[in-house]
Design brief:
Shape: globular
Distance between the termini: 37 Å
Number of strands: 0
Radius of gyration: 17 Å
Order of helices and strands: HHHHHHHHHHH
Strand content: under 5%
Helix content: over 70%
Length: 253
């Protein structure tokens, strides 16, 4: 094996690959899967979130371009969601960057556990459709942006689920949320860069390589595995990794 290629970097490539396949099939979960797995490898929460958000600039940019091309974007929704989402992401990244890693690790694990349970709940139950007041959108954007940056992921599960569950058309909700995520990700990555400096280049490149290789497989997988089953598997995986992090954190206390 070449000297620069370590087992840890190969693991990060695998994480990027798996996370992007899941994200391509479900339209969500790249951030929470990647962050959960890298925390399990021992990476500090702020560094893991910084690497994931920097890598996501590339993946969310491609996703946004695709949705814009296919006219799945409501630009009024993007504006209302995006301004609040960017503000929440900057605050969340700043908070995570300025808290001791040993202190914040259990809280991040609890948040990721909640996201895992939420994805499982979504897979097992259908949300009722109802009218969605426009006033709900900025608070949803702010909360999703803050939780995504401070917890290392969750923009898609929080924002898309809230909008679809409150009555927005699924196609436009998914397209608008994915397009907005590009700007939210840039805001979070920039804040991490200002607070922490550049992300570790080997881990960043490895995650991007894994995601790029996996890009064609999301569409293939979604034709062969039911979204409900995939969501159950993803929710369970995130929950198991987060619980493991909680156990490790409490053993070190």
């Amino acid at each position: 094996m070449p000297e620069f290629l370590t087992w840890e970097l190969l693991a990060v490539v695998g994480i990027g690959f798996a996370a992007q396949v899941i994200d391509g099939a479900l339209g969500m979960a790249f951030g929470v899967v990647s962050t959960s797995a890298m925390l399990a490898l021992g990476m500090p929460p702020a560094q893991a979130s910084a690497v994931v958000h920097t890598a996501e600039i590339f993946t969310t940019g491609a996703s946004a371009a695709s949705h814009i091309y296919h006219r799945n974007v409501d630009w009024r929704l993007v504006t209302r969601l995006g301004i609040a989402g960017v503000a929440g992401a900057v605050l969340g990244a700043w908070v995570l960057s300025n808290v001791d890693a040993s202190v914040v690790r259990p809280y991040v694990a609890v948040y990721l556990s909640a996201i895992g349970l939420f994805i499982l709940f979504k897979a097992l139950r259908q949300f009722p459709t109802r009218d969605a007041p426009a006033g709900w959108v900025p608070p949803v954007g702010f909360a999703a942006g803050f939780l995504d940056a401070s917890g290392g992921g969750g923009w898609g599960p929080v924002a898309t689920s809230a909008l679809v569950g409150s009555g927005h058309a699924p196609r436009m909700a998914v397209g608008s949320v994915n397009t907005t995520e590009f700007f939210v990700t840039i805001a979070a990555a920039t804040t991490f860069f200002v607070e922490l400096g550049a992300s570790p280049l080997p881990s960043l490149v490895a995650l991007i390589i894994g995601g790029v290789i996996a890009a064609p497989f999301g569409g293939w997988l979604v034709k062969r595995v039911s979204p409900r089953l995939l969501m159950i598997l993803v929710g369970t995986l995130i929950l198991v990794l987060a619980i493991w992090q909680l156990v490790r954190a409490f053993k070190l206390m």
